[in-house]
Amino acid sequence: MINRLLILAILAFTISFMLTPFVKKFAFHINVIDIPKGKRKIHKKPIPLLGGLAIYISFILTLIFKLGKLSNSELGIIIGATIILIGGFIDDKWDIKPLYKLLFQIAATIFLIFFGVKIKIITNPFFTYNQYINIGCFSIPLTIIWVIGITNAFNLIDGLDGLAAGVALISSITILVIALLNQRNEAAILMAILSGSILGFLPYNFNPASIFMGDTGSQLLGFLLASISIEGAIKSATAFAIAVPILALGLPIYDTLFAMIRRKINGKPIMQADKGHLHHRLLGLGLTQKQAVIIMYLVSAVLGSFAIIAMQISSQRSYFVLATVILILVIVAWKCGFFKHTD
């Protein structure tokens, strides 16, 4: 199994690495370029977008080329990812309203659910004699909230060269390890392919970036990680261990939640952009882009390690680990002024 995963990851890496320069030329050709305007822009010169297209093509081609027939869940993920890619492409080209972006995300998630990728049973954080809870009619809304939430969290964290791609790579490897530990081969294959696709793109996206992934990529990565984590972050054949993926995908989740809390405390609209995200704060301390990104990589890796630990222990203890991590992060965020408003 390990050899097969390695071959698929190398294939995905090769396709992504070779394809990205052509995607860059294509973005210039159709004028999908990020021109630095406004206070929130950090780069100084126009940079092509659409880097997510290389990741998407690499992921899809490698998935199709793998041995064996595509499963229903894989078909659902492919269709959903395609819808997300289309919505992201339109946003990168014409900068559509958040509502329209949300409609694409809902449509993608509905297809995902239709093909059977949804949260049905969760681990019970309270009682040992009844380890699992069948959530019944709450399955669909919980899946929609999870997928759309993670999709947008990765979209929001995409603020520095290589940040979203690197964090997504670390999260992919974390969930790959978790899937292997639970013998969830399908999820492991998907994560190996996604890891290779991201790794092939990252050399072009790391500081100084020659191409950005754009909404085409950041939303795509969030959607794929959210979708595959439903299949891979489990403690039994069917139960979704909530603490595990929340830790594995922790950095974008907490950064987004802290942004929402900060805006609420300061009486600002929840959707109003600001410069209070973690990467903005690190830059404000005088760090370079590379230094800030590496620190966030390390934080993501530590959270991923906690996710693997949480997978190995009882459900009750895993929730305790999650609660402890959240409490520590909230205290640190409060002490460092993360909840103070910054324009």
Spatial order of strands in the largest sheet: 4-3-5
Order of helices and strands: HEEHHHEEHHHHEHHHHH
Extended strand count = 5
> Could you give a short account of the major beta sheet?
3 strands, mixed
Computed Rg:
19 Å
**Domains, number:** 1
Global morphology: globular
Residue ranges: pLDDT <50 for 5 or more in a row?
A: none
Counting helices, strands and paired strands, the structural category is mainly alpha
Helicity level: 55-70%
C-alpha end-to-end distance? 50 Å
What is the typical, i.e. mean, pLDDT? 87
Q: How many separate helices?
A: 13
In terms of DSSP E residues, the strand content is under 5%
Structural key phrases:
globular, two-stranded antiparallel sheet, 13 helices, 3-stranded mixed beta sheet, 343 residues, mainly alpha
Task: Write up what this structure looks like.
It contains 13 helices and five strands. The protein is globular. The longest helix is centred in the N-terminal third of the chain and has 28 residues, at 2-29. The protein has a three-stranded mixed beta sheet with strand order 4-3-5. It has a two-stranded antiparallel ribbon with strand order 1-2. The chain has helices at residues 2-29, 51-65, 72-94, 98-114, 139-157, 163-181, 185-205, 214-232, 243-248, 250-265, 278-284, 289-312, 315-335, and strands at residues 33-34, 47-48, 121-123, 132-134, 239-240. The protein has 343 residues and is mainly α. It has one domain (2-242). The model has no long low-confidence stretch (mean pLDDT 87).
